[in-house]
Write a structure and sequence with these properties.
By secondary structure, the chain is of the alpha/beta class. It is built from 12 helices and 11 strands. The strands form 2 sheets. The chain has a 6-stranded antiparallel beta sheet with strand order 4-3-6-1-2-5. Strands 9-8-7-10-11 form a 5-stranded parallel beta sheet, sandwiched between helices. Helix 2 crosses helix 7. It binds 1,4-dihydronicotinamide adenine dinucleotide. InterPro entries: Cbr1-like_FAD-bd_dom, FAD-bd_FR_type, Flavoprot_Pyr_Nucl_cyt_Rdtase, FNR_nucleotide-bd, Globin, Globin-like_sf, Globin/Proto, MRET.
Length: 402
Amino acid sequence: MMDAPTPTTDAKAADEHELPMTDGKGTPTSRGPSADALLVRRTLAEIAPVADRMTSYFYALLFVRNPGLRDMFPVAMDTQRDRLLKALLTAAEHLDDAPALTAYLENLGRGHRKYGTHSAHYPAVGEALIGALTRYATTTWNDETQAAWVRTYTTISQIMIDAAAEDERSAPAWWHAEVVSHDLRTPDVAVVTLRPDQPYPFLAGQYTTLETPWWPRIWRHYSFASAPRPDGLLSLHVKAVPAGWVSNALVHRARPGDVLRLGPPGGSMTVDHSTDTGLLCLGGGTGIAPIKALVEDVAEHGDRRPVDVFYGARSGHDLYDIDTMLRLQKTFPWLSVHPVTEAQGHLPDAVCRYGPWGERDAYLSGPLGMVRRGVDALRGAGVPSERIRHDFLAELAPAASG
Ligand SMILES: NC(=O)C1=CN([C@@H]2O[C@H](COP(=O)(O)OP(=O)(O)OC[C@H]3O[C@@H](n4cnc5c(N)ncnc54)[C@H](O)[C@@H]3O)[C@@H](O)[C@H]2O)C=CC1
C-alpha cells in the first residue's frame, strides 16, 4: 500500500542538519528537535536492530486484523515487504523537517491513489504500527512515547489523505500506457517509449512509478528520459538488474502493444527557469535519462546558460546513449558532454578535474554510491549544498531500477 520511500528531494533535504527545525506544532525553531521528535527518534534507535522482525509482525497484525487489505499488496511480499513501514519510519524520522516532510508525504499520498487506498485505511495502518512498536520498543515505550507516535502518525496520515483528496479533483489515480516502441540498446538496457491513455503532465527531471502486467501490484520508479513532448509520448531507460522482476520484464519481455500502468509523476530534480545559472549534470548508467530530459528542457526554454554533462559508464559500450548526447552537443553551443568510462576513473573524480563549478546548479542521477560520492565531491569543489539536486532522500535508496 505505501510506496517505497521515493526519490523526491534535493540534496538539501538529504542532510537533515541543514533543514529547518520545528517545534511539535510545526513551528520553526532554532533550538533543535521537538519533544515528539526526540521520543520518536529514541524509539527508532531501539527498533533498528530488530527492524526485520518488527516488519513481519507489523504486516501480520495488519492483515490478521484487516484481511481485506491483503489484496492491495503484491502476492510475494519479499521485495517490498518493508516499504510501508520504511516510508512511515522515514517520515517519523524527518518529523522536524517540515518542508521536506510535507513534500515527501504529499507525494506519497498522491501516489497511494493507484493502490486503491482511501482515507478509511489509514487508521488500520496506524493501529498496526503502534502495535508493532509496543511489542518491539520495549525499553523506550511508555504512555508519553505512545502519545508522541500517535500525534506523529496522525500528522503523517492527514497530510497524505489531504494530498490524495486534492489530487483526485484534477488527476486520475493511474494512467494506462501502451508500449509503442522498444529499443534494446545493450544486452540489458532498453529504451521504452509509451503512449499514455490520457495526457500525462510532468516536468523534465521527474520520474514515474510503473506496474507491468506480469508482476501485478509491484511498482518501480523510472525517470523520464525526455522533456514533455508535443505528441505526449513518454520514454524511459530501463536496465535489467539481477533479480529485478520489473526491470527484466521491461527489458526482455515487453513489446509494442503491451499495456502498463503509471502512477503520478514525482521528484523535484527540475530546472529553475527563474535564473540563468549554469548547470552541472552527472548521469551514471541509466541515470543519464533524466539528465537528457533536463538538457531538452533548457533548450526548449531558449536559455543559453552553460550546461556541462558528465556521462559515466563502466565501459565505452555501456555509454548506450552517447550518440544522442553528442548530437545534442552539436546542436547546442552552450552544451558540453564529457563521457567518462571507469578506465578513466569514477565519475565524481573526473568532474573535479574540470571546473570551477562553484557558480553552477548541480544535478546528479545514477547509482546511490555515485550520487553520494558525487555530492561529497561537488561540495568539496565549492558547490553550495542548496544548489545540489538529486532524487535520494537521506540514506534511503529507492528501488529505482526494479
Ligand atoms: N533519477 C535517478 O536518480 C535515476 C537513477 N537511476 C539509477 O541509476 C543506476 C544505474 O545503474 P547502472 O546503469 O547499472 O550504473 P553503473 O553501475 O553502470 O554505474 C554508472 C556510473 O556510475 C559510477 N559509479 C557507480 N558506483 C559508484 C560509486 N560507488 N562511486 C562513484 N561512482 C560510481 C560508475 O563508475 C559509472 O560511471 C540504477 O541504480 C538506477 O536506479 C536510474 C535512472 C534515474
